[in-house]
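ARCHIVE CARD
Drawer: 12
Card no.: 0347
Subject: one protein chain, sequence and derived structure
Cross-reference: see card 0346
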Amino acid sequence: MSLTITQVLATARLDPIDARALLRHALGVSDAHLIAHSAQALSDAQSERFAALAARRSAGEPVAYIVGTREFFSLEFKVTPAVLIPRPETEALVEFALERILPDSVQSVLDLGTGSGCVAISIARHRPHARVVAVDSSPAALAVARENAQRLLDTSLGTPSPLTRGRACLDRRGGNWDGGEAGGNSNVSFVLSDWFGALAGRKFDLIVANPPYIAAGDPHLAQGDLRFEPPGALAAGADGLDCVRLIIASAPQYLSGGGWLAFEHGYDQAARCRELLAEHPGALRGHGGLPTLVDSSLLRCGDTLALAFNLARLISQASQAACQDLAP
C-alpha cells in the first residue's frame, strides 16, 4: 500500500525540515502542495526517489547538494560540491554593501572568492548601476556562478574563451576585458583569479569577501555538512587566517580613495583580525602618513562575524535583523 505525503513525512528518519525539502524535490512540488495535498499517495517511482534522497541525507550529504539549490538573500542559487553552501549570516555582507552603494550610483565592487556568486549577484541585482567583479580560483565554481547570474540577472553571459594563464572574464559591456569574450549586458563580471592575481591596476570602491577562515586542524571539518564542502573554501592555514592576512595586506592597492573592505571571519577571530589590520599601517594611514584608525565594527550574525574597514577609518555599524552589535 502506498504511503501518503503525511505518512512519508511522519516515518522519515530525518530532521522534519530536511524531510520536507527532499520530498518537495522528489515530487517536484512546492511546500504549499505538501500541505494542501497531504493525503496524496506517492507512486512507487516517487517513493523510490524519495528513499534514495533520504539515504543520501542519512549518510550526511548536505540537503543543498542533494536538491542542487539554496536560498540566499531571497534568491534561489544553484549549488554543487564545487562551491560553498551559502549561509544566512553571510547576508550581512550583502546588507553592508547595499548600505554603501547608492541605488543610482556607478560604483565598482569586488567580490573575492565568489563561489556560487551569491554575494556578487545579490549586490548586482539590487544595485543595477554598480559594476561588480567576482573572482574565484576555481573554474568549476565560476561555472556555477555564471549559471546563477544568467538566470537571476536575466542576461546572456556567453561563454569565455581560454585565456593566457587560465584567466577568464565576462565584461559588463559585452566587450573584451583582459582577453575575455562575452555577450550580454549584465553588471557583474567573472574572473578566474587567485584573489587579486588577475586584477593588476584595478581600483574598487568596495571589496567584499567571505574567505576561508577555519583552522586546518579544526575537528569540525570532519563533521556534518563541512565534510562534503570544498576544503579550499573552508580552511586556511594553522589558525585559519592565511587568506584574511593576504586580503588585508593587498586590499589597499585595489581600493579607491575612501573605499571599503568588508570580510567575514570566525566567531573567535575578532581580536586577531583587529591586530592584523593594525599590523599593516599602510592600510590604515591617510594622506601624509597620519593614522586613520578610529574604530572597528564587528557584527555578530549566527556563528560568524563580519568586519568592515574603510581606507579613511574603521567604523561601528548598527546591526540589522538578528545581528547583534559587538563593537566595544
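Annotation on reverse: Strands lie at 69-72, 75-78, 108-112, 131-136, 188-192, 204-209, 255-266, 297-301, 304-310, 324-325. DSSP finds ten helices and ten strands in the chain.
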